[in-house]
Structure formats: C-alpha cells, structure tokens
Amino acid sequence: MFSDSFFKRVEKKTNVSKDTILSLAEKIQKNDMKNENTLREIIRELSSITGRDVSKEKEDKIVSAVINDKVPKNIDKII
Q1: Dihedral class, residue 52 (left if φ above 0, else alpha if ψ from -120 to 50, else beta)
Q2: What is the pLDDT of residues 45-70, one digit of tens each?
Q3: Alpha-carbon gap, residue 78 to 45, rounded angstroms
Q4: What is the pLDDT of residues 13-28, one digit of tens each?
Q5: Which residues have C-beta within 8 Å of that of residue 52, sequence separation ≥ 6?
Q6: Which residues contact 3 (CB under 8 A, 6 or more apart)?
Q7: Ramachandran class of 77: left when φ > 0, alpha when ψ lies in -120 to 50, beta otherwise
Q8: Mean pLDDT, rounded, for 27-41
Q9: Contacts by residues 16-20 (CB-CB < 8 Å, ≥ 24 positions apart)
Q10: Closest CA to 20 of 34, 35, 10
C-alpha cells in the first residue's frame, strides 16, 4: 500500500484528503475500469474533488489511455 508520506504529498498538491483518496480508490476497485461510462464518472468526480476543469478533449484522451492500457504503472513517480 502507499505510505503516509505519499498521501501527504498528494494532499499538499491537490488539497484532497487521504479519506477521500481511499474512498475513490475503493470505488475504482469495485468498478470496471475498462467501461467508458465508469471512467467518465470517475474523471468527473476527480475534477469536482480537485476543483480542476477537464475538457471533453482531455476526458477523451484519459479514457482512451486507460482503456488501451497506456497509463504508467508506477503512479508514485508521477506525483
């Protein structure tokens, strides 16, 4: 699992709490991440949580990347 320092870095950059992150992670685990509608729901939820707008074009790119397995596996290095 991720360390507390990971969650602190994420919270510092995004103002999203550890509890919110874990709740979202649980939602992701319980859903089919290859389902376009599910992905779009999660993207919109993340957009709302972080207060960042995601354009339709960017949303399409994210969905395509996830469905086509083009997402980096080591997310800790991204953050």
Answers
A1: beta
A2: 989 988 889 999 999 999 999 899 88
A3: 20
A4: 888 888 988 888 888 8
A5: none
A6: none
A7: alpha
A8: 88
A9: 16/49, 16/50, 20/49
A10: 10
Q: Which residues contact 38 (CB under 8 A, 6 or more apart)?
A: 31, 32
Read off the tokens for 14.
């995004």
3-class secondary structure, 72: coil
What distance in Å separates the CA atoms of residue 19 and residue 30, rounded to the nearest whole number?
17
Quick check: 78 pLDDT over 70? no
Cβ–Cβ < 8 Å for 41, 77: no
Q: What is the DSSP track for 14-42? A: H---HHHHHHHHHHHHHS-TT-HHHHHHH
Quote the distance between the C-alpha of residue 18 and its chain's center: 13
Confidence at residue 27, expressed as pLDDT on a 0 to 100 scale:
85
Q: Return the structure tokens found at 10.
A: 């994420």
